[in-house]
Amino acid sequence: MPDNATPLRTEFDFELPHGYVDDAGTVHRRGSMRLATARDELAPLIDQRVRENPAYLGVVLLSLVITRLGTVTDIHAGVVERLFAQDLAHLQDLYRRINGLDSGHSAVSCPSCGTSFAVPGPETGSRLGEA
User: Within a domain: residue 95?
Assistant: First the structure.
């Protein structure tokens, strides 16, 4: 690796559209999310809440990778559950972008000739944990 190489960025700051409101009524809009690891992606699959409701995967996954939300550093599923829907969607989109999961295009092949090409994805992507 060259000496002037840029170090890997693993943490990303964000600002929520509405913000998380804690028990004291304080609104927390700024936070930080780290890159997901393979363990982060696999751990929710054995979580009983995810087994009972696969759509809950996104909540558990975000609770593992959000490192800070304002002054709140103990991020758990209960915190993510209390986010406004627009804030949850914002974080799901950020997760997909920083982890390279949302290129905006899908690779497809023509069933007749076998030619491969990219097509634009849907206008709105599915949320984390949804098929």
Answer: yes
**Encoding tokens for residue 89?**
């969607």
Rg of the chain (C-alpha set) = 17
Residue 72, in any domain of the structure: yes
Best CA proximity match to 63, nearest among 52, 73, 53, 51: 73
Q: Give residue-wise pLDDT tens across range 28-84.
A: 999 999 999 999 999 999 999 999 999 999 999 999 999 999 999 999 999 999 999
In a domain, 26, yes or no: yes
Domain residues for the domain of 44 are 11-102
Cα–Cα distances in angstroms (integers) from residue 78 to residues 9, 81, 103, 106, in the given order: 28, 5, 30, 34
